[in-house]
Structures are given as C-alpha cells and as structure tokens.
Amino acid sequence: MTERKVWWKTALGVVFTALMLFPVYWMVNVSFTQTRDLRADPPHWFPWDPTFEGYEAVFAQQLPALGTSLLVGLGSVVLTVVIAAPAGYALALLHLRGGRTLNFLLLVAQMIPAVVMAMGFYAVYNNLGLLNTIPGLIVADSTIAVPFGVLLFTAFMSGIPREMLQAARVDGAGAWRTFRSIVIPMSRNSILTVSLFAFLWAWSDFIFASTLNRNGDLIPITLSIYNYIGNNTTQWNAIMATAVVASVPAAILLVVAQRYVAAGVTAGAVKD
Amino acid sequence: MTSIPADVGSRDGSRGAAGTTPAAPPARRRRRTLSSSQWAAVGFAAPLLVYLVLFYAYPLWRNIDLSVHDYTIRAFVQGDAEFVGLQNYVEVFGSSTFPTALWNTFVFTFGSIAFQFTIGLALAVFFRSSFRLSNTLRAMFLVPWLLPLIVSASTWAWMLNSENGIVNSVITAFGGEQINWLTSPDTALISVTIANIWLGIPFNLVILYSGLQNIPGEVYEAASLDGAGAWRQFWSITFPLLRPVSAITILLGLIYTLKVVDVIWVMTTGGPGDASTTLAIWSYREAFGTGQPDFSPAAAVGNLLIVIALVFGFLHLRLQNRQEATS
Fold first, then answer.
1. Where are the domains of chain B?
2. Contacts of B143 (CB under 8 A, 6+ apart)
3. Which regions span the lipid bilayer (chain B) (predicted)?
4. Considering the domain B89-326 in this protein, what is its CATH number?
C-alpha cells in the first residue's frame, strides 16, 4: 500500500521534473538539429540525424570568449574571497564596532539594480580608461558577489567555537595568525560556497559585459551569444550549441557541489 | 561609508580620554586591549570598506551626478555637462513611456512572484514527503536557476518563435491559432513573464523547502491523528507556520524581479514599441540600448528604481528583524 503510493509520487515527480527541464532539453535538441530541419513542421522532437556543425562552430569561434569568461570568473572569485573573508572575520569574531551598520549597508547594496551600477561604472571607467578591459569587468562582476560573500562568511564564522579562538590566543597567536591558521581552514565550506556563486554570477553576467565591455577585443561568452543572435538569426543550432557549452560550468557545479548551492541559496534568505 | 572607521577611531579616542581620569586603572587596561583588538577588526574590514567606497558609493554618486546634469555623449567625453537640477526627473515623469513602464514593471513583477511562489510552494510541499529519487529530482530543479540568464532567455526566445517555435507548433497541432508571442504587443509582456516565472521557481522551491524542513514532523503526526487530511493540514499547519519564510521569499523575489534586464532584453528588447518595457529595461535602453546613449534620463529612471527597490528592501529588513526578535 505505502509502496504503491511512493511509486506514484516518484512517477509524478519525474513528470514535474521533465516539464520543468523541457526548455533545457529543447536547447540540447536544437543544438544537434540539422539546419534544414530547424524549420521542419512538425519539429523534430529528437535529433535522430544529429549534426555537430553547431559545436564545430563553437570550438572554431568561441574559444577566446570561453577563455575570457573563465578568466573573469576566476578573477571575480579571488577578488570576492580576498575582500569578503577578512571582513566576515572582523564582523563575526573581532566584534567590529559599527558592525550592524555595515551589515545593513551590505543588505542595501544587494538591492541596487545592476543596470544602475552599470551606468555608474561606465561613467567612472570612462574617466579612468577602464572600459573594455578585463580587470574593469572583474571588479564590476565582483560587486554582485561581495555583499553576499561578506554576509555568508559572517554567518558561518559566527559558528566557529569560541574555545578554539581562546586557545589560540592563550598560545600567543595574534589576530592575523588566528585568521590564517584557524578561521580560514575551518571556513573551507563557506569559501567554496562563496567562490561557487561568485564564479557563476560572473560567468553568467550579461549586463556589465554588454555595457562595460561591449567594444572589447575579448568579450565573455554571454555577450558572444547575444551578438550571435543579433548577427545570425537563422543558425539557431549554432546559437543553442554555444548556449549548451556556456551552461557546462553550471552543470558541473550542480553535480559536484550541489549541497553548497542549496546552502548558499538558503543562507541569504532564511536564518535558522 | 567612510564614517565607519572614523567613527570607530573617535570612539576609541573618547574612551582613551575617559581612561586618563584617575577613576579605574584596571578598567583602563582592559579597554586598551579592547581597542587594540578593535584596530585588528578595522584592519580586517579595511579592504571591504575601501571596496565599498570605491566600487559602490562612487559609482552610485556618479549615477546621481549623471541624473542632475545634461550629459550628451560629447559632454561625457569633455566633462562639461550642464547642471539641470531635477529637469531629467521631470522629463521622465512626463514621458509617455513612464506610465507604460510603471504598469509593465508592476505586471511583470507581481505576475512573476505570484506564480513563482505558488508553484514553488506546491513543489516544496510535494517534495517534503521523501520518496524514491526525491532528492535527485529536487536537485534537477535547480538547473534553470544555475544556467546563465542569456542562455535561458535565448532558448525561450526560440521556443516562442512565431513560425518555428515548439510552443506554436504544439498549439497548432491541437487546432489552435499561431500566436505571435514575442512580436505582438498583446503577448510580449506575458511571454517574458512566463520565462521569468520559470527562472524563479527553483529559488522559491529551495527556500520554501528549507522552511518546511523546520516545521517539526510531530505537528503533522498529531494533526493526522486528529483526522486532518492533506488539504486541511496544508491550510492549518504548513501555510501559517511558513508565513515568515514566505514573506521573506516574496520580498526577495520582488527585489530581484524589479532589477531584471537580461531576460526581457534578449527576448524582446522591451518591444514591440514599449509593450514589454519595464523601468529597468527603459533605463538600460536609454543608456546602452540605442546607438545614441542618453545617460541622464537613464540615470534618473535608475535612481527611481533604486527608491522602489529600497522601499521593499526596508520592508524585508523589518520583517527579518521581527522574525529574529520572536525566535
């Protein structure tokens, strides 16, 4: 009886998941469809006669864009962690005065629309000559992740047992030593979570790329897909192949680091 | 933001001054160690403080500066834009796009939230009872949320394509009429809202699911002993106990949805006409979307958007504080 009910639920769950993931399936399907079949009626529900033209085009043309995105993503991860981890330490364990105000400012910072930041950055970068540069894009992309990173580090580091810190102090360790040899090793999971989100947000960013880096020699993959759509509206299989390749990091992260993803989503919203 | 280290410094100074009075020497020693650890705290927070000033405060200030000057592209390069006060804001409010963009923002935001939340909650309740594969399937639901927005948006754009889209071919296969999802003013806003609902379901599911995990199972056991069915249990237990989490989920959703640019821009660029132009799209289009950048009105619209986002933001903070006070 219960066994049957459980199976019924699994079946329903599979149906829901299939419905939800249909657009993702469709993206993959179209990426393998022959150009002449793209406009077939009825459409090809499964690529029986797959083509790799789209993927060949990706590897012929998009490698620089993928490399740029990788570089921007990694740069954003480093910058975010370097700034956010010490700040989390100061807020959570060193009882920084004005910490509540700072927390509040970080929450407010997360509410500022990216398009507004993009305009501000455009005006600033225009004067500094940082438009269309990779470092400029890294800094702009990191602003999406830094407030989140600080809040997450603060939350996680508050959970580090005080006895460990006191023991370190008794042994004569200063704030820096404690941070390096106790706090950082114990924060491995939160560093992973913050890095994961910083990377994913920088990799997926379109607004900053399309405003601050629109005329750059090296454009990230999101902007490359966008330009592709603009130039070449008939080659949807190639566009979708690029989209599939651009989704690979997300897929890898989902498989490898799923629990960090869930932890990060929840940490921002729910306090236990 | 600069006031934080200055504030700390001055407070330390006043404490030090208080300590020189011959009142309590032991306390003075304690305060001195406190203040040295405060210096360490400031040191560790310093990169963040510098970062916030350089990369948040300064661009935002520049944005306000843009909105009160008349920046043409020439003035932008030469830096001699004329100060016009609130002229740009007056023009924005008087523009014929303004009521449309405001209404579209409202429809897009509340339409997205209502469906994302309802579907997310239904799925969270569904996944609450563990069954075979439930964890794997729930993880798969995260996929749309992790994909780059531009990827999802272009996939939806192709699915909703008038002639060759899969959605229309299913509709016509069942004898329906072809719908010009993205190119008709009647459906463009609905189309981008549908895509955005799809994007938001994972976020709602994850947060509401973790909220459900915090409701003790005994409550449900007691209810089912009392003969309450699933429907009754939902309305008498799940819904009321999930209210704080729900409120925060909805407010965060509001704040995120107000900002959305990528999805709409890739699918319709806010068109046809202004049919799917929200405030965020309007701002983006004025500044970057046309050949002729018009930064000043764009900045004015952007600042308006900040004000709206902050109103919901403060509501969120109040809710969260109240929740912490009660728990």
1. 3-55, 89-326
2. A21, A24, A250, A251, A254, B202
3. 39-58, 101-127, 139-159, 188-209, 241-258, 298-317
4. 1.10.3720.10
